[in-house]
Predict the 3D structure of the following.
Amino acid sequence: MELEKRIFKDKAYFLLAKMIKAMANPRRLEIIDLLGQGEKSVEEIAGETDMSIANTSQHLQVLKAANLVEIRRAGNYIHYRLAHEGIYKSWQALRELGLERMAEMEKLVKDFREKRNTLEALNIDELLSRMKSKNIVVLDIRPAVEFKNGHIPGSINITVKELPAKLKKLSKNKEYVAYCRGPFCVFADEAVNILVKKGFKAKRLIEGFPEWKIKGLPFETI
Amino acid sequence: MELEKRIFKDKAYFLLAKMIKAMANPRRLEIIDLLGQGEKSVEEIAGETDMSIANTSQHLQVLKAANLVEIRRAGNYIHYRLAHEGIYKSWQALRELGLERMAEMEKLVKDFREKRNTLEALNIDELLSRMKSKNIVVLDIRPAVEFKNGHIPGSINITVKELPAKLKKLSKNKEYVAYCRGPFCVFADEAVNILVKKGFKAKRLIEGFPEWKIKGLPFETI
DNA sequence: CAACTATTCAATAATTTTATTGAATAGTTG
DNA sequence: CAACTATTCAATAAAATTATTGAATAGTTG
């Protein structure tokens, strides 16, 4: 009886640990974070994460074996996506834990943002209240595909590359809030840095689009 | 610039992975789960998890290095506790993920509960609505110390060991709901099994006391 | 069906993780 | 302060994880 109990517990915790181990790797966390934007091919994932194709594939196999991702075949390409929303939510909870409780993590983010004039970031709740009153322009600094799959209503899609050319169309009387994929995505930081240096009033949103969506807030697609 | 961006991401995901790796081990998950009941000494943890003292201590060092647990010295004993509530919440989210999405996990739990007449379990919400209407008796099947640190209001503390002797004091007209530490804790299963075999109407609560508390529901101490 | 493309597989070496053992340490108690 | 207790440390061997390389595979296209 006591033995049976131990066997049950051993198996249960082993299975859970197996799943968590599949997450517990920097590369795979980056992949999970990225797939929060929607499905991507192996090639795209490798490109975005600066990994070799073979290594990317291997990590994807680990995630697939743990039922964390699913695939869709389209022509020569295989598209990977998160197997369900709960996976991104768990990642979000863990990321939150790290951001709030690890001193090293706090320092890392602070140092990075300090150099890029993005220390004064705002969160989703703050954005929501400001959107009502102030003349705020929300900028979505992600690739066009991701913008199309869903974005904050009223936001304007400009990538970091396009931004310098489009500066003259922006008014200096407005306040800009740039967002991208999430807390570890740096597109918004780069955009804010460019804007602030040119004399615009700009801040980044701490969270990204996935957090907006998971919060149940309305979003537009095209 | 691109390089700096990569270095930032590498460091960020590495730090997160380090923390998650500290969780991603069956023994350490069991420790985290156990510490959800409140602080315990190394000896107690080793006893509850059937590990050697040295091995337990080693795993505790890993958890401490990741800032997941804190210590309190009292006499010769060192008491470990979770460093904050968010850690148990994250564990809960991950456990949920596994319970809902891993076929192996579902089978494991089902097989175990089938043998113990605890397949027909109820969850906290169901218990709450039944507590209002029916003549339900809630049994807390945990060690007395844990009961003292907090329990569902009105619940009666009976351990598995004590139960057979106390059966005659229980009425067959009531319905019994047994709870313990959480989904992987088997005290409640054992209690329900004994009760059902003796002709009582009994079910287990799927969740345990930590889930009750984290939900913000009222609890009694003493 | 041959050439091509995206992805996976297999083999390897380097690194990390784990449990076990027994010794060392910090702190308490008589 | 000597004996004792709970915990940690250190050394080890076995097992697992990781990135790299190049070959193999599945599927598409002309």
Summary: The beta strands of chain A are 40-41, 69-74, 77-82, 136-140, 156-157, 175-179, 201-204. Residues 21, 25, 27, 51-52, 54-55, 58-59, 62, 73, 75-76 of chain A lie near DNA strand D (CB under 10 Å from a C1'). The longest helix of chain A spans residues 2-23. Chain A has a mean pLDDT of 93.
